[in-house]
Amino acid sequence: MTDSIAAIKVEGLRKVYAKDGKKAGTEALKGVSLSIPKGEFFGLLGPNGAGKSTLIGILSGLVTKSEGMAEIAGLSIDAYPDQAKAHIGLVPQEFNFNIFEKVIDIVLDQAGYYGMPRKEALLRAEVVLKDLGLWEKKDAKAQALSGGMKRRLMIARALVHEPEILLLDEPTAGVDVELRRGMWDFLRKLNESGTTIVLTTHYLEEAELLCSRIAIINGGEIIEQGSVKELLTKLNFVTLIMDTAETITPAQVALMRDLAVKIVDDTTLELTLKPGETVNDSIRLMTKIGIQIANIRNSGSRLEEVFVNLIDKDKK
Amino acid sequence: MARTPILTGYFTMVRKDFVRIIRIWSQTLLPPAVTTGLYFAIFGTFIGSQVAAVKGFSYIQFIVPGIIMMSVITSAYMNTVSTFYFAKWQRTIDELLVSPMPSWTVIAGFVTGGLMRAGLTAIVVVLVALFFTHLTFFSMGILLGAVFLTALLMSLLGLINAIFAKSFDAISIVPTFVLTPLTYLGGVFYSVDQLPEFFRTISMANPILYMVNAFRYGFLGVSDVPMSIAFAVMGGLTAVAFGVTLFLFRNGAGLKN
Questions:
Q1: Do residue A144 and residue A263 come from a single domain?
Q2: Which of B90, B96, B256 sits opposite A113 (nearest CB)?
Q3: Do B257 and A109 touch (CB under 8 A)?
């Protein structure tokens, strides 16, 4: 096996759910193709029901595909399902461990299922539980953990067998800001150590900060993919929020009629710049009419604007 | 780091279930001890003393193998149906489905749990039986063969039940409305030779009759059916049940979307 082999490769992947259950008859994936090189931090973004979890489910063996090809570390999931799964660690969206079991047992059992001998598993469990700040809780029952600790336990469990590829299905959903930032640091370090990470998330800021490449999925189709920089260049406008030093007067508002400005409140305005327009020109005009800018910031995640734009276009 | 998880994974599953069975002994091992103790006391001692010998043995000696087998059947079935359905309900089954363990290893892990619980239950019930009567052993090979095949078959059937079950009700329907009547009508408390021809013929279609009689033969050396047929029925059904379970696992029936 050479390094040129993609960590994950899917071609024409299609999934139609059977005619029973919650998703009966839904075509969740409509011929998705992707190639994720080894060592990449890859983001899979999309609204609810876009097909992200279905794709993760197919790769991890929890969902059966209807059509198409998928390979993990060069191993077809059809021809070598068990060998392919050995390369993966999965952090699912929902808690799926036995809440009546001890933290250490959950992690050790998972190591066993992946063929790791008990002695080795004990050493490895200590490492991952310490890395994730759970070692002190190793003898606690999982039900006694806080929501954030449960999330970290899922990551520890997925990492105990040292997988080359980590699939994270919305790992920071419902996690507080501090903990989320701690998880980001952890995941960044993990990726730097060589683990390929595939992350699905609703937090676009998270994807923008962590991922080197992103695919946007909507209605079961990849509608855009590329590096974060490439995606951001597709953004044909930028929205800036400006705080003014003094209250904006109606006369000043009237004088700004040539700018795409929206007044948010007495001392805040929102400026939208189209291609070719510069911040300098806008500020020059504002200064000329007596508006002093105290602070400028992006209206939010720039990736979020790309995302919303693409999803809107796709709907049309 | 990719490894071969067959043996380690299997032993992990077995260890986990063994610890669980022992930890909740009051739910797994105590109930059969109490129930069978009552059977031995009421049917064996109180009523049995009024009943004539069956095939040359006192009534309590005659029913002891059947009652032990009844516990084995229930324990093996209930162990797999409950552990597997609970894992499905809590989605902890995903831990196994995403792992590189082959389907047959996962099946073996669950089935071994059923065998362990059935074996431990059989030991407990034999000890209880010793309070009421003395036991004779005619053929240890047949006795162990019958208990092994029966526990294996019931564990597999419990697994199939759990795979299809969509609610806790669905895992109690088969034991209550199928397994228990078949067990009671499977010659636990009587010899089918004592039945009229019509009912004797119908009884022959009951697979549990072969299990009970093979087990009884191991203890007493008497049976309503030839041993070759009894083992052929048990072996054949076990092979079919394993094939069905493997097919269902590989296709992800009731497990994967």
A1: no
A2: B96
A3: no
